[in-house]
Design brief:
Naphthalene 1,2-dioxygenase Alpha Subunit, Chain A, domain 1; Rieske Iron-sulfur Protein; alpha+beta; 341 residues; 4 helices; globular
Length: 341
Amino acid sequence: MTLSTTATADHIYATGLRNQWHAVVPSHFVAPGAMRRVTALGEQWLLFRRSDGVLSMLADRCPHRGAPLSLGRHLGDRVACWYHGVEVESDGTVSSVPGLPGCNLEGKRLVASLPVREAAGAILAYFGDEQHPEPVELTLPEPLDDPDVEPILCYAEWDVPWRYAMENLLDPMHGAFLHHESHTMYDGDTTAKFRIRETGRGYFFEKTDQRGVNFDWVELCRTGIDWVDLSIPYPPSAGPGGAFGIVGMACPVDAERTGVFFWRYRRVQDWQRDTWRFLYKTLIEERHWEVLEQDRVMLEAMPADADQRENLYQHDLGVVRLRRLYRAQAERQAAAAASAG
């Protein structure tokens, strides 16, 4: 449980939706036997791996005096607060109070813990509320759960609201302008008409008059975790695997900062998998970071009230649909939290 019963819709909209999974950080950020403090959805958390590699995510707050557990010691299967030595298990249960053995804190689950799992090199966590403490069903993006697909994770943190990062992905037309000089998005018309096509898990936002040329479509998917899928055509000189796909996610760090996850993938097997990874690491990855940098520079330069001073047109239907969906969900969650309070 992480959501305060006094949380407003504006707060939820700013810091991230609850009762769903979010990608938090790449798996390699937390080595076996190590721990790391992270901020997610505006809250401080401690990620630590037990000696056997099992990952846990705890509120970064000792139940005794509120000191950060992340400043403490890793004891293999638990952590000990640096301030007074209170030991906390991976599920948030206090196992020992060294200063007063037998203290009534021992044996109580006093630290919030989140369900976690790992997929395709990322740590995913479920953020619930008082009415929904148990995790919802999680269906991973198909390209991250298919043995015939090779995904490569790229992660960065941007000083932008998480919604701006998601809206950027639901805006295919920016590729023909912002990324016009890139090695993949230089071709195609700079005019287009779009449509929204509803699906059982979200919607497509796609060009009606161009396909397989540029950034021509994107699908928003809501499968217990929010993600987008898109495809960009690649020339034969870029190696095997056909079109180049991207799965994207955005994790709200807080109201002003976002962790962005981009898995670049192609459908390859056997020796073609090795060829694709070699080509990507040696020739393509640097170019892709240049494209991401263009997105970062543009989004970070936008004022905080950019979405309050707009004049939208037909190309923005995907963004408008996304905002309505997220705003409605934030209002429902705030109302439910207030009712519980």
